[in-house]
Structure formats: C-alpha cells, structure tokens
Amino acid sequence: FKLCSLRKLSCLGTYFEGRFLVLCLLLLGTQQRSGVGQTEYMWFSSSAPIPTYVLGANDQETVSYFPEVSGCELAENITYLGRRGLYSGTSGLQIAYLSGTESQDEPAPAYSFSAKDVAELKTSLLSTPNFKGVDILLTSPWPRDVGTFANSAGEIDTKKCGSKLVSDLAASLKPRYHFAALEKTYYERLPYRNHRVLQETPQHVSRFIALADVGNASKKKYLYAFSIVPMSLMDPAELVKQPQDVTENPYRKSRKEAQKTKAPLCEEPACQFFFDLKKHQGKKRPSDEKERGNSQPKQAKKPRKYADPTGPCWFCLASPEVEKHLVVSIGTHCYLALAKGGLLPDHVLILPIGHYQSVVDLSSEVVEEVTKYKSALKEFFRSKGKRYVLFERNYRSQHLQLQVIPVPLDHCTSEDIKESFIAQAQEQQIELLEIPEHSDITQVAQPGTPYFYVELDTGEKLFHRIRGRFPLHFGREVLASEALLAAADASRGLSPCTSRDEGLSLAQRLCTGFSVIPRCPRTSALVYQLVPWLGTWRRPDALHSCAAWALCPS
After folding, report:
1. Does the N-terminal peptide bond of residue 107 adopt cis geometry, omega within 30 degrees of 0?
2. Which end of the chain has less Cβ packing within 10 Å, N or C?
3. Would you indicate the residue range of the signal peptide (predicted)?
4. What is the pLDDT along the chain (554 residues), one digit of tens a residue?
C-alpha cells in the first residue's frame, strides 16, 4: 500500500508493552535507534506523525498511564479513546470501541469492563434513529464463539477463550470490521451474516480480524491495512451484497442460550410459522402446588423426544403397517428403505425410527445419523456412476420421508437438476429459493412450518415455504421429466409395484453393495432373517430391544 494513503492508525492490545510503537514506525517508514524511540513514545515526549488511537489498560500495571476515564490526548497525534464509546470521523466513518478485559465484578476495575458498560454502550448506539450498525469495532479481547461455523482459528479454542460480553456487543452493533488482539495471533474469520436468511431483510456482513504481536517470532500478521467507504455513504444494494463464503452468525446460538437463562419460568406457546413469531403476553395461572404454598421449582424438562403418532403410521418401524421387507439398513435412530413404487429400482428413503414429522423436528442425535446416511449414500451412488437428489415435502404427511433418487452422472449435471427444479417451480408459480451454502433447513423454518426442500449432493439447497395448496408430486414430476430421468409414468407413482419377493430381493441386493461403505450405519445380515418376523411385533420396546441384539452398532 502507499504510505501517503494512510490516514489513521488504531492500536489494540496492551499499548504500553511497546508492541504498537513498532507498528507506527513500520507503517510510516521512520527509522528508530534501539532503545530511544520506544521510550519517547511510551512517555509521550514525542508526537506521532499521523493520528494514532489507542485503547485503554488491560491490567493494573498500566492503569496510571490513562489519567482520564473518558479519554484524552496522551501526546500530539496519540489519543486514548476512553473506556467505551463511538468515534465519528469527519468522513462519516463510525468506530465503536471498548477498552479493557471482561470482569464479573460491579463496578469493574479500571482496566476492565462489566455487563453494565456493555449495556450502556449498546443502548447509546441502538437508540440512534435508523441504526444499521457501525463501520468498525475495536476491542482488546476476542469475542467468545467467534469460530463457530467458520474456518479454524488454529490453536485458539474460540469456545473457551474470549469474552461473552464482546460477543453480545458484536452481535448488537453489527460491525463491518471487528478488530481484536489479546490472543497474540493472527486470525481472519470468514465473513458472517447479520440477518436470518428468508426471515429478515438482508443486511451487511461482518468480518472479524485478530492481529498478532508486532515482531513475533512466527512472523504472523500484525498489520492490517485496508480502505473502507463509510456505511452512510454506500449504495444500500452494494452494502448488503453477500460474499460466496459468508457463514451464519456465530453469536446467535450463544445469545439465545443467554436469553433462556434470563427468561421467566412461564412458557409461551410457539407459533406455527416463522413468519409470525409474535409472543403472547400475560401471566400464567399459578400451579396447584403454588396455591397450596409449595414454592419448590419445577423439575427441569427432559430432552425432547419424538411424538406418538395420532393414528396408524406407515413409516414408524414398530408399526405393523410398515413394509418391512423393503428395509435396507437399520441404525440407532434411523433406517433406510426402498421406496414402494419408486422412480427407479434404487430410489430409497431415509426415515427416523421414531415418529418425527419433519427434519426441523429432529433431535440432534437423529440429525447426526441422517447425515451419516446421506454421506454413505453419496459415496455408494458415486461408486455406481450416479449422483443423488434428496427432497422432503413437509405438507400433508405425518412422518418424515427423505426421498433419495440417484441420477446417472452422464445423464445430467447437478446444475441441470437445479435449473429444472427452478424452471418448473416458476411455471407453477412456486417460489423456490436457494439457501446459502453454510445454512441448513433448521435455520429457515420453524417446527410446524409446511415446506418443500431439495438438496443436491453438491450441498446446494432449494427451499419453498408452502402457504396454500402445493402439488403433492412436484419433486417426482421434476425428476421424471424429459430433461432428467424421462420417466413420465413413474412421476405419480404409476410404475408397476414389485411383489413382496421382488422387493425383498432388491433390498438384499442394495444392502450387499451398501454395506461396504465405511460411513454407513451398520446393519447385520441377520436383519433379513428378522424382517419377515418384524411384522408380528407390536410394541416399540420389543422392536428396539431385538434390534439392539440383532444389529451391529454404527
């Protein structure tokens, strides 16, 4: 970069260790004699050639160097910003800052900040009319959990190091750039978004950059020079452009957990659709125990389990209605079965053993096993010269069915499949939207939301939020079209149904090939001796106890 273009210099970390003195001199090309220039800057008997802004003390030893809590000029062109606040340059650039390290004490020591400091800074900025965020945020500590959904931070465990208060501040202020330095290593995180996809208006992305010590032995990056146009001067469309590598917001989950701990004990009914998430106000009627004077708190809720079906279910594995001769593999929480009347002989379904209505209802352990099955199927079909397409229709169905259909690699590309879905959706006035790469279905739909969802084996995803009527065979019709499989008769399940013996033979043949895939949840061959007998079972506990004996663990 050109030295003449450098207008401002901000220093993070512990200024009085001398690390950022060297930064100033290197930036400006100024020569320094050993042991002279550093002392002059530390005691402010000299001035800096360009405006230099520093944060406050991070330990008790350096507190005395910052005489004014609200900030002051330490020397010519060297300004201490203060404990917290917003610096607005003449160009319109807005720089929020927070000095010190996190403290749980109230009031906090002079070298620390507390929850009250963060709350007051947030309030002062968020109350500004039309607040959209700040251009830059400067803190000494890293924000806790900044590495969630992102590239690795190396040896730094972002779930344990850093400040939760800084995470909360960054989530609220939405800085375009957030700089920190206390971990003494360089880390540039992938940009993250500040809005919920398909739920909120698009907003600008944020970037977190951590800088290493100046002159560090590993020669890690300690200098970050960049040009920035103030947010207030940017074209709105340009401001909210999302880069290809953008990820989900790393702080959203931790903020939800924090809010839960502060939330009142009363429970509020959930709304059905994520487009209408208003909460009902009002107090709950006190429980019978309270009325009798028993003030003991309720026991903690047990982890959420699957619901019992309201009637006969064709897909609950313990149900007598299940076509058990079509079962290919049984895991701990899910099973794989051939589709009855499938588009192709190897059209399969991934189904939960318990009764779940959709992917967004699944517990974490079931999601994990579904992911294993998807990885195994991808590898299996690739070995056969095919790629898979997966879709789910959470509409007029009571048990989750993930339809997995293989398509020959030489027949069409993943882009062809994607374009076919989008084109036929437009013809039927269905709004099929692409979900960003680092997002998943649980981030765009709430439990109870009717939707249609497509996933390609490249990881690309399409989503439609169903608001009214929806063609039940849409997924099959797209795949059966002339552009893809050219199987018009099979699009509505019109292919000849196989007999029980044929179905069992197909399932056994598929299992033989499928069992060699390393990541597949393992099923013992003994399952095929059990399958005819499964139809006589009635109790879920009997099914699971026998399955545990018969099947090898995944």
Report:
1. yes
2. N
3. 1-37
4. 333 344 556 555 554 433 333 333 333 323 333 333 344 444 444 677 778 888 888 889 888 888 888 888 888 888 889 999 999 877 889 999 999 999 998 888 999 999 999 999 999 999 888 899 999 999 999 999 999 989 999 999 999 999 999 999 999 999 999 999 999 999 999 999 999 887 788 999 999 999 998 888 999 998 888 888 999 999 999 999 999 889 999 998 665 555 555 444 333 333 333 333 333 344 444 444 444 444 444 444 444 556 666 667 888 887 777 888 888 888 889 999 998 888 888 899 999 999 999 999 999 999 999 999 999 999 999 999 999 999 999 999 889 999 999 999 988 899 999 999 998 999 899 999 988 877 788 888 888 899 999 999 898 999 999 998 999 999 999 999 888 887 644 544 444 445 676 767 677 777 766 654 555 565 533 333 333 333 333 333 333 333 322 333 33
Contact status, residue 421 vs residue 478, Cβ threshold 8 Å: yes
Nearest to 209 by CA among 220, 198, 197, 196: 220
- For residue 8, the tally of other CB atoms under 10 A from its CB is 14
Which CATH architecture fits 7-255? 4-Layer Sandwich (3.60)
> Whole-model pTM?
0.52
Q: How far apart, in whole angstroms, are the C-alpha atoms of residue 402 and residue 212?
A: 47
What are the C-alpha distances in Å from 213 to residues 30, 59, 126, 162, 221? 19, 17, 33, 17, 8
The residue extents of the domains of the chain are 7-255, 324-550
252-262 vs 164-173: helix axis angle to the nearest 10?
110
Task: Count Cβ atoms below 10 Å from residue 497 Cβ, excluding itself.
Answer: 11
d(CA 485, CA 228): 50
Q: How many helices (H) and strands (E) does the chain have?
A: 13, 21
**DSSP sequence for 369-409:** HHHHHHHHHHHHHHHTTEEEEEEEEESS-SS--EEEEEEET
The gap from C-alpha 332 to its chain's centroid, in whole angstroms, comes to 26
- The SS3 of residue 360 is helix
> Which single residue is written with the structure tokens 């109790």?
539
Structure tokens at 214: 């100046």
163: its two tokens: 């400040």
Alpha-carbon span 193 to 206, nearest angstrom:
6
- Shortest CA distance to 6 belongs to which of 32, 31, 28, 30? 28
Q: Are 36 and 48 in contact (CB under 8 A)?
A: no
Tell me phi and psi for residue 366, to 5 degrees.
Answer: -70, -40
Q: Rounded distance, CA 504 to CA 498, Å? A: 9
* DSSP code per residue over 124-173: HHHTSTT----SEEEESSPBTTTTTTS---TT--TTTSSBHHHHHHHHHH
Both tokens of 438, joined, read 């680092």
Closest CA relative to residue 390, chosen from 506, 476, 314, 450: 476
Tokens of 322: 């299940």
